[in-house]
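Chapter review: from sequence to fold.
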Amino acid sequence: MPGLTGTGTGTDDATDDGVPRAPSLVVGVGAGRGVSGGEVLGLIGRVLDGAGLSLCCVTELATAEAKAGEPGLLAAADRLRLPLRAYTADVLAAVEVPNPSDVPRAAVGTPSVAEAAALAAAGEGGLLIVPKAKSAPPNGSPARATAAVARRGRAGNPAAADGVSGSRGPARAAAAPTSSSRTGSSPDAADESGAPRATVPVRDSQHSKENP
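The token string follows.
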């Protein structure tokens, strides 16, 4: 796909006979203010290729509510024809992650965006299979995007979560209720209550100057 530095054509999610399984991966994305769609796309492609994962097995992107209105993130989701799910800072802060940071904590109120959003969207029994990675802009520019990949648990049926189907569609943002709580039982496993069902419009008035 144009805009991706990698092809994302790994076969990790294919059965022994080569027939792909239903989409089971979620990519969590952190976005600094002003990040370009190309930077987000390039990072997603690199992360998937590096882990031998297929873009065809990605069911959605996930991020923090405060970042859901970033034009570059929305452009990347549109280009990939993937829905964009957004979670409040309180929900993300309740998710145990292997690489928390004070930067997103100060910027958007949660120690993790990419890893926490991926695990939250993966639902009960979800696994973090690719930890947070930063983008690598040319000319030594500061990274403005982070990404992590989680695999949905058996209970995290992507077709039942928030009206998201296995088919690709225009990007849209859905926010989890503030009362939702998700925690992980280990650095790469989430013991969660499942993905929220209700679709809530996300206000894009909240932006941060920091890169989560």
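Two observations follow directly from the output. Confidence is low (pLDDT under 50) at residues 1-9, 13-17, 157-210. The radius of gyration is 15 Å.
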